[in-house]
Amino acid sequence: MKLAKKNLISSFLLIIIGLITFAIYTLLPFEKTSMDYRITSCVFASELLCFLTVICINIISSKEKLALAAGGYTSVIVYLMLQIIVSVIFAIYFRNAQSTYLIIAISITAVFVISIVLIVIFGKSIYEKTSNVEKSSQFFKMLEYKVQSLYENCNNSDSSDKVKKLLEEIKNCDQSNLVATDSEISVSIDSLIKQMQDKNISSEEIEKSFVRISNLISKRSLEVSQTKLGGV
What's the whole-model pTM score? Predict the structure, then answer.
């Protein structure tokens, strides 16, 4: 669903809920007191906060594919229902406990705001990790494709064994994240492919390229481990 459509639906729901709240307040068959004004004001403020929260979630999830967005919407519904239930209880049974009502209403709002902030933080973090894994997976699929093609077109048995070993090293390395060395590995593999297509290149130079790529793969394994430990 597009952002504009989501926001339009959210605005429509806010208007409907606000009108219902106003109608209920207006039609109550007793004289309104300061407690009624306070409760109604708090309910309206809660509804507006919910609306703004939904708009923010819509925008963030649209731009950054925020994970846990459903949890944010659920929190909005639970928060609004709690505020309405508390308001109804105090409006009927505790009409003189204005201070207590405000403390409870503010406490519920504080918990709601904190939960939304945590949902946004964790949601963005999960999305970034998932995105990094996807990018890393695509990168290594491309490397595997290049080396696999090189292996299939290799006529020299000695070089073929080395290419096969290189392919296994790439497949077996930790592909959960991209690190700085990955660009060097990609460039080195491209260089190796060109060298093996060049009939004038010496076997020593090709051997150096295999060793260099193998060393780079070992280096990236260390970098990935450090990344997971928070080292870099």
Answer: 0.63
